[in-house]
Each structure stands twice: as C-alpha cells, then as structure tokens.
Specification:
The protein is an alpha+beta fold. The protein contains twelve helices and eight strands.
Length: about 400
C-alpha cells in the first residue's frame, strides 16, 4: 500500500511522542504506534503498526504491563514481538504528521480519546486522591515484573507523573503526585510494600523504626475490629489487642473470621450463578453481557474477601475496599498463589464501565459496549478465582 507520509520504520522525533500517557491504554489491530527499539543508545523511536496482541497458550498475563503485541516494523512486512512498555502514542497535536488514513486509525481508539480528556489513568477529573490511588496500583504492579521490565515501567511512570510533562495550571497537582510516586517507589524498594493509606502526601512516618513491627500489628488488628464491628472493648490486663471483645473471648475470634468467610463465600456462589445465567442470556441479548462482566467483578471481589477472612488476613486488609487488585495482592501474599492475581486483572475494570455511560469509552453505553466473548472470558476468570479460594478456605478449615 502507498503511504504519503511517513513510512513504517521511519524515525519519529522525540518531541512528537506522548510520554505522559499511561502505557496500559490498549492498542488495537491496525493502529499506528511508536516503538522504542531495544538496545539502541541514544534511544531510537520508529513508526510501527500493531498487528495483534500476543498471548501465551495456557498462560495468563501477570499484569497490564506484561502485555505483548506483534508489530509491523517496516514496509517489507517484517514483524516483531514488542512489550507494551516499549510502545508509545503520538501526541494529538502532532497527528497531522501522519497521512489522513493513519491519523484516523489513531484517533478512532475510544480508550485513547477518553484518556486524552481526563488525564492519566481512570475516568473523571484527576484529583490528588485519585492520583495516589493510581500510583499505588501502578507501583504495586511494577514490583510484580521482571527487573528489566520494572526498570522500563519506572522510567515510564516518571514521565507520566513529572510536572514538567503537564500544563502549567496543573503543576501543583502533578508536583505533589510525583513526590508521592517517588516515596511510594522507595517504600516498596525498602519494605516490599506501599505506604499505608493514612499517611500524608510525603509518605513519611513519625513512628520510631524499632516500634514499627509492633505498631503495624496493632494497627492491622485495630483496623479489622473497627471495620468488622466485632471489637468494642479491650479486656483489662491483656497484653495483646487480640483480646478486644464484644461478649466473646479471644479464642473465639478465629471462629468469627471463618464464619464471615462462609457468609461472604455463600454470597460469592450466589453471584456466580447469576453471572452464569447472564452468560446464557447474552447469546440472545447483548445487554446481558455488561451485567455478566459486572457480576464477574463482584464474584472476584467477594471471593477474595472470603479468602482473606478465612486466613485472618482481615486483620491486615481494608475489606471495605472494592479495589480488587489490592485484595488479590493481599490474598496472593497469604496463599502464595500467583495465578489469582492474573485472573483478577481480567475483571479489574468492570466495576464502573459496565454500569455507567460516562465511565467507559466516549461512544456507546454499557449495554452496547460489551460483547459475549468478553463476558465469557470474565466469567471463566471469576470461576477460577472461586475455585482457588474454595480450596484455600477448605485448607484453612482443616488446620
């Protein structure tokens, strides 16, 4: 095919790249992108075309930053496997750099158009609190990657949150967000976990280092009893905050947690059956696919909470959260099961876009935006999570 400008494989000037865009924004078949060629110094960026997303048979990606795409890198049709962390978008202001048909392919991606208006990450106007939530998730997922990929993602996240990459009127917001990102990354490097959410923007702790383990245990337990409604007082003379009670002894708290696990898991199975019915209905009614995807997200959330209650890890996890990636990470740490995190990622974005017209792509509404294949994939993922958690709860009961 003839291209007026420019040909595939040609160098793209750095000033035309959108470094501030989150690398998880999806690429579609036939879309044009810019590829950072690995191993070249100084960095070299070339124009490529996305052929398809690559999947490994029998395996799931361990996160949104582990995705790979087959790309066409020159006019001879040569193809290459590219990490999503090596792919970039052109800035919207420079799309005239392409011929009309190429620019149209770029701008027709609804996910990209939505993010261009809203800023990095999820829908809605970006606030500092939303930025922190996004940074926590991004950094947590970064530390699931291999060292080379983690280094790439660190570089991308620095570009995404650096105030110099954004308009002057947002400088204060991105300055604070970038400071939080730096501290969150350092905290993961030093402690293997993120900064507790009740800390300030700077993420510094006033606690003396030698008291940190004791304080962490106390705070985790206090959070559990506060949120579950179980803890109302503390027996006098007890040396541990485990002796908080509301008409029960400390020995009964394990039973209470398993009781909660059974309640949450019963609701999980009820939602699973509702999702199954929507899958069958989706063959004839397109609107049922969005509901099936939403129910799959709910199944995963409730199953993970059941697993955390069963492990007594309700003591260290905010079980009021609907951030299922955080719940999956906590369950993964408890159960040593890495696959549950991968299954969870499949349905992580189905909480709001499946129900609200203003939380997904600009065009269409939820009842039109989800197809049967997506619904089936979501259902299979939630079914796997239920199976994993069921086995885990059974193992906890036998202890």
């Amino acid at each position: 095919p003839q291209h007026s400008s420019p040909p595939l494989g040609c160098d793209i000037p750095v000033d035309k790249l959108n470094f501030a865009e989150d690398p998880t924004v999806p690429y579609r078949c036939g879309e044009y992108a810019v590829y950072r060629v690995p191993g070249r110094e100084p960095p070299s960026f070339i124009l490529v075309r996305v052929v398809e997303e690559l999947t490994t048979k029998g395996q799931l990606s361990l996160g949104p930053y582990n995705r790979h795409f087959l790309i066409e890198i020159d006019m001879d049709g040569s193809e290459e496997d590219a990490s999503i962390l090596d792919l970039f978008k052109l800035q919207a202001a420079h799309e005239e750099y392409l011929s009309n048909d190429m620019a149209l392919t770029l701008s027709s991606n609804p996910s990209r158009a939505s993010q261009a208006e809203e800023g990095p990450g999820e829908g809605g106007a970006l606030t500092l609190e939303k930025a922190k939530q996004q940074i926590r998730r991004q950094v947590r997922e970064a530390f699931q990657l291999a060292p080379t990929e983690k280094k790439k993602l660190h570089r991308r996240l620095c570009l995404i949150w650096h105030p110099d990459k954004h308009s002057p009127e947002h400088k204060d917001l991105y300055t604070k967000a970038f400071q939080f990102f730096q501290n969150e990354w350092q905290h993961w490097e030093e402690h293997g976990k993120g900064i507790p959410e009740n800390h300030g923007t700077e993420g510094s702790s006033w606690r003396p280092q030698r008291w940190s383990p004791w304080w962490g245990d106390w705070e985790s337990e206090a959070r559990y009893y506060r949120y579950s409604g179980s803890g109302r007082s503390r027996s006098r003379g007890s040396g541990s905050w485990r002796h908080w009670y509301s008409g029960s002894s400390s020995s009964e708290h394990g039973t209470t947690s398993m009781h909660e696990a059974r309640r949450w898991f019963s609701q999980t199975n009820s939602d699973l059956e509702l999702a199954r019915k929507q899958i069958h209905a989706g063959l004839d009614q397109v609107a049922s696919n969005a509901l099936a995807c939403f129910l799959a997200q709910q199944v995963v959330e409730k199953a993970l909470k059941a697993g955390l209650f069963a492990s007594n890890n309700g003591l260290c996890t905010d079980l009021h959260s609907n951030d299922i990636t955080a719940l999956a990470f906590a369950f993964q740490q408890t159960s040593n099961n890495r696959s549950v995190y991968a299954h969870t990622l499949i349905v992580q974005d189905y909480y709001l876009p499946t129900r609200y017209p203003n939380r997904g792509a600009q065009s269409g509404i939820p009842c039109e935006n989800f197809d049967h294949q997506q619904a089936v994939k979501a259902f299979e993922a939630c079914e796997e999570v239920v199976h994993i958690v069921s086995q885990f709860i059974d193992a906890q009961k036998s202890r």
